[in-house]
Prior knowledge:
Structural class: alpha+beta
Mean pLDDT: 91
Helix content: 40-55%
Largest sheet: 4 strands, antiparallel
Number of helices: 6
Strand content: 15-25%
Distance between the termini: 30 Å
Shape: globular
Radius of gyration: 15 Å
Number of strands: 9
Oligomer: single chain
Strand order of the largest sheet: 1-4-8-9
Amino acid sequence: MRVYVPLTLPGLAEAHKAGALGPGPLTAYAVTPGLREWYVSDDIEELEYAALSRAAAGSLRLIAGDPRAARRRVVVALDVPDAAVTADPDAGLDPASVGEVRVAGPVPLTKAAAVHADADDAVADVSAAADALGAADQGDEDAQFTVDGAEDHELLWFGVQEIPALLG
Length: 168
């Protein structure tokens, strides 16, 4: 199963140094029955993009919680055995957790298919979104507009071998 693990750049640096993501359980996003129902599509590429987008939102939350983290969203795409992934069936009722799964972990970086990260031109919007996230969660529409601005930036694709340059 392909899962998308939200990280920060410091989290990616730790995983790179250790050679693995973990310890588990890891919060990740995947094409789950709940995501299929929420997104209403049978196109697997669209569904995987939706799971990646959910993970990017998770990365933004991690950034908001770590003022020292660089303001670039990071998501690692991993291929893991189905048995290593669990989903909370009750979480499907919460719109904020659509597609969310747990990976038993740790997962070697050799299982990574790719790393997705913001380009440098996204930093200002991601920073503003991280700062506005709390207010957006409280229903502030202007803050939500700012958070949505980060989503206007597509995450770039990086091969696992490019992690050192990405961290550079």
